[in-house]
Amino acid sequence: MSRIIDVLVVGSGLAGLTAALAAAREGRSVRMVTDGMGSLAISGGCVDLLGYAGGQRLDDPWSGMNLLPPEHPYRLLGADCVRAALDMLRQCAAAQGWPLHTAASPQGAPCNALLPTIMGTLKPSYLLPDSLDPAALTRAKRVLVASAHGLRDCRPALIISQLRRYREWADKDFVPLLLPSPLGATHRSLSALDLARLVDKPQGRDWLVQSLRKYAGQCDAVLLPPVCGSRADVSIWRELSQAVACPLVEMLSIPPGVGGLRLRDALLHELRRHDFELVENARVIRATSDGRRCASLTALAAGQERQHVARAFVLATGGILGGGVELAPGSARESVFKLAIPVPPDVSLWSEPEIFGSHVFSRLGVRVDGEMRPRDDSGQAWRDNIFFAGRSIGGYDFATEKSGHGVALATGWQAGRMAAATAGKSAEPASGEQL
Ligand SMILES: Cc1cc2nc3c(=O)[nH]c(=O)nc-3n(C[C@H](O)[C@H](O)[C@H](O)COP(=O)(O)OP(=O)(O)OC[C@H]3O[C@@H](n4cnc5c(N)ncnc54)[C@H](O)[C@@H]3O)c2cc1C
Description:
The chain has helices at residues 14-24, 61-64, 73-77, 79-95, 135-139, 156-163, 167-170, 192-199, 202-216, 234-244, 258-271, 398-401, 404-425, and strands at residues 5-10, 30-33, 52-53, 56-57, 100-101, 103-104, 110-111, 113-116, 122-125, 128-129, 142-148, 173-179, 221-224, 248-250, 276-279, 283-290, 293-301, 304-315, 325-328, 331-334, 340-341, 386-388, 433-434. With 435 residues, the chain is of the alpha/beta class. Helix 1 packs parallel to helix 13, helix 4 (79-95) packs across helix 11 and helix 4 crosses helix 13 (404-425).
C-alpha cells in the first residue's frame, strides 16, 4: 500500500484525463491507474460534441441537446456544465502549445465544422486543433490532395472521388499527389504516425516541404494525412505551412490516431504541473468498501497486486472495447464493481440489421445521476464517493450521435469536480471490506 491520495482515477482515456485535471485543479492529489491508453490512441483528436440528433445533422450542436433523451449525459449535466468542460480543455491545451478552437457560422455563432476523412467522407466536429481547421479548404478553388508511397489506406484518387459527392465540394479542382516514401521505394507499409514521428525531426520536415513545395504553389490549400508532427506542438504545423507557402489541412485518419495522441500528450503535460501520479499497465481487479464509501481499489501489474487507498474514486474505464462494460449472453455488467447493467432479455434485440444503425449494445452502460454517481434500483446513489465518467456511462450512442469526446470531456469534468469536493469533505479512509 502507498500514500493515501485524494482522488483515484481509473482509466486514461479522455474521460479519465479530464477527471484527473478537474480534480487536480481543485488542489487535490490525484493518482491515475490504467491498463492501457484508451481510445485517444485511435482517435482523430477533435472533440465531437453532437453531430447528429433527431435524425438530422446539426450545424449547431447546442440546439440539438433538447432533442436528446432525458437519460443522455448532456441532459443530466445541462449545457452550462458542458460549456465549462470545453472551456477547461481549451485552457489546458492552449497552455501546452496545442490551441483548440471552434468554427463560426456565417452569422458568427459557434458551430460544427465538417472535417474531411481519409475515406473521403465529412465528419461534424466542434473543437479542433488548428491543423484540422477546414476553413482554407472551404475557400479554395484548387486543392492538392497528398499522400505518400507506402502509406496504408490513404489514396488521393479515392478521397477525391468520394469528396466530389458532396455538393459544396463538387466544383473544386482537385490535384492528387503521391509523394515518394521518405524511407525509400522498398518500404511498403507506413502509418501516419510513422510519418508524423519523422516530421518531428528537421530532416523529416525537409522531406515534406521539398516534396510538397513545387505542387502546392499551384494550389490554394493542401489536404494531407495527419503527419505534421506527433507531439502537441502547433509550431510544427505552422512552420510547415509557412515553408510550403500554402495552408496545410490534415484529414482525419485511421488508427493509430495521431491527433488523439497529440491531445493526450498535451493533457498529460498539463497534469504534471499538479500533484499527479500515473500508474500504467495496472488493471484494477477488486474493491473494498466501508459502508457507503469505497475504501480502496486493488490493481494487478506485472503479477503484483497493489492496494490504492483514496478518499474518492472516478471510474473512467470505457465501454465494451475499453474494458469498462462486460457482456455475457443475456447480461451486461460494469467491470470493476460488477454493477448490473439492464439489457433486453432477448439478445437478438441488442443489435439491429443496419450496420450503422442505432444499436442497443452501443448505449449500454452504468446509469448515473447529474453528479455522475451510479444509482441503485431505487434511484439512490449507490456509494457516496464513487463517480463514473465517459463511455462506461450508458444512455448515449457516440457513434451515431458523433458525441464521443464531448461526453467523455463533460462527464469527466463533472466526475473530477465532484470527486474533488467529496475528498475535501472526507475524513481519513477506513480499512474496508471486499465489495
Ligand atoms: C476509431 C475511433 C476513433 C474515434 N475518434 C474520435 C474523434 O476523433 N473525436 C471524438 O470526439 N470521438 C472519437 N471517438 C470516440 C471516443 O474515442 C470515445 O467515445 C471516448 O474517447 C471514450 O473515452 P473514455 O475515456 O470514456 O474511454 P476509453 O478511451 O475507452 O478509455 C478507457 C480507459 O480505461 C482503462 N481501463 C478499463 N478497465 C480498466 C481496469 N479494470 N483497470 C485499469 N484501467 C482500465 C483502459 O485501459 C483505458 O485507458 C472515436 C472512437 C473510435 C473507436
